[in-house]
Automatic annotation (TrEMBL):
<dbReference type="Pfam" id="PF00171">
    <property type="entry name" value="Aldedh"/>
</dbReference>
<protein>
    <recommendedName>
        <fullName>Aldehyde dehydrogenase</fullName>
    </recommendedName>
</protein>
<comment type="similarity">
    <text>Belongs to the aldehyde dehydrogenase family.</text>
</comment>
<dbReference type="InterPro" id="IPR029510">
    <property type="entry name" value="Ald_DH_CS_GLU"/>
</dbReference>
<dbReference type="InterPro" id="IPR016163">
    <property type="entry name" value="Ald_DH_C"/>
</dbReference>
<dbReference type="InterPro" id="IPR016161">
    <property type="entry name" value="Ald_DH/histidinol_DH"/>
</dbReference>
<dbReference type="InterPro" id="IPR012394">
    <property type="entry name" value="Aldehyde_DH_NAD(P)"/>
</dbReference>
<feature type="active site">
    <location>
        <position position="228"/>
    </location>
</feature>
<keyword id="KW-0560">Oxidoreductase</keyword>
<dbReference type="InterPro" id="IPR015590">
    <property type="entry name" value="Aldehyde_DH_dom"/>
</dbReference>
<dbReference type="InterPro" id="IPR016162">
    <property type="entry name" value="Ald_DH_N"/>
</dbReference>
<feature type="domain" description="Aldehyde dehydrogenase">
    <location>
        <begin position="2"/>
        <end position="447"/>
    </location>
</feature>
Amino acid sequence: MRNPATGEIIGTLDEATPAEVQQVMAQARDASREWGETPVSTRIHYLRNLRHYLVENGEMLAQKISEVTGKVTLEAYMTEIFITADTIRFYEKQAERMLAPRKVATTLVLFPKRSWIHYQPMGVVAVISPWNYPFQLSVVPVLSALAAGNAVILKPSEVTPSIGLLIEELFQAVPAPKHLVQVLHGGREVGQALVAARPDKIFFTGSVATGKKIMTQAAEHLIPVELELGGKDPMIVLEDAHLERAANGAVWGAFTNAGQVCMSVERVYVHERVYPQFLQLVKEKTAALRQGFPAESELGSMTSPEQIRIVREHVQEALAKGAVAEWGGHFPENSMFLAPTILTGVTHDMKIMREETFGPVLPIMRVASEEEAIRLANDTPYGLNASVWSMDKARAKRVAQKLQSGNVCINDVVVSYANPHLPFGGVKESGIGRYRGPEGLQSFTHAVSIIHDPGKRKREINWYPYTGEQHALFVSLTKTLFGKNKKQGNLWSPRNWKGFWREWKRLY
Ligand code: NAD
């Protein structure tokens, strides 16, 4: 295990063997039975204890996350600790309601039945997580699965193994039923072994390529998967935007966490009327950024050397094809610190505008109209987040609704994830499924449809024996309920209706 900013070795860790993965799965199965029967209020009580531990130890945890990832300590605190505590609070307030049986209407012909949905825990949920927010993107899905009544096996990223250890310590520090949350350390092979051990659901956050592999492997046993994948998020700045706010948003949205954010601003489309002013503002604000590690800077280091290779490749290809580095653009060898980079003269023939860069790079394109901005924003295989900047509420809303994206911010960036009431997830290659919000919590359950009949009648209208009267009744009913001319159905008058019911009751 290394400190990415300094390269210093900070410990060693053994990877789980296939036999250990099997054993962990068996233990999780046992734990899931009792936890699934535990009332939601008791589960939430456990989450509350976790929140207290998290808040008491938050600064220490953020410090450790910062050391391991190279991210600025304040960012580690805000995005890993605060968001996790906020999510727990949300579950404390809302989980019982969101998981309570939900009554739904029952159609007239099914009278006197009653219907409801029961949210049944799935069993064992496997959470496989990435390195860019290694704490929060592990712990929040784990908490969601727990609140919904499942046992969890977490496989954190091998790029940040000590955060996996930290999370294991967190779950050991707060008393819980044995084996309720288990952590498997290791890389791809351990992830594959976990999928092969047949969990009841896989919650995966990571790259598109890995997401596809996991889905393929899961398909063999029809294991439900939820995939939170990469993005190439567009930002559209219209001519009536608050330019200073938009420039601040662009700089923060592109460079926060050194751009290693699935919802980073990865492409900007600016209306030609405000393009020069916007570019000037963005350059000024970038020039004011301090880069360093850890305490008093805005920009930390990159976390993964492999990601640096990708960022460098994208920037070099863009420059070779005619892009202009308005700021930065040259990355020294053997440094984990990449200077924030602003590119102009970019086109959709360049990787920098098409593939996920995941680094501190802000490519900006001039557009002639709102329509052109929408067309270019949608010209991507991804669809995670997007932003629209305009002071005209109706216009911004119109543009937002035309974007092919799982989440859209108006006059803001990235923030979608911060509201736990909102479902979060991608469209196109950015993923499948939604977590957060009621849908997100319920997605860790089987929504079991229950329909209840009082059970007092000896048979139903559609049961055996089939008779001519039964046939006539169904034809009449169909014409009355669904036909163009309801009078053909003979049941439109109250008298006929009464007769129909008499006949219905006589037969059934
Ligand atoms: P990755 O796909 O390389 O790895 C993610 C996890 O999958 C790791 O724990 C890894 O060990 C495991 N893994 C790798 N191969 C596996 C396999 N065949 N079977 C099972 N597990 C396997 O992703 P990464 O580089 O760690 O993370 C960066 C990516 O994550 C970026 O693309 C980023 O956009 C995406 N991401 C998405 C979201 C979101 O919410 N949509 C959030 C953060 C990051």
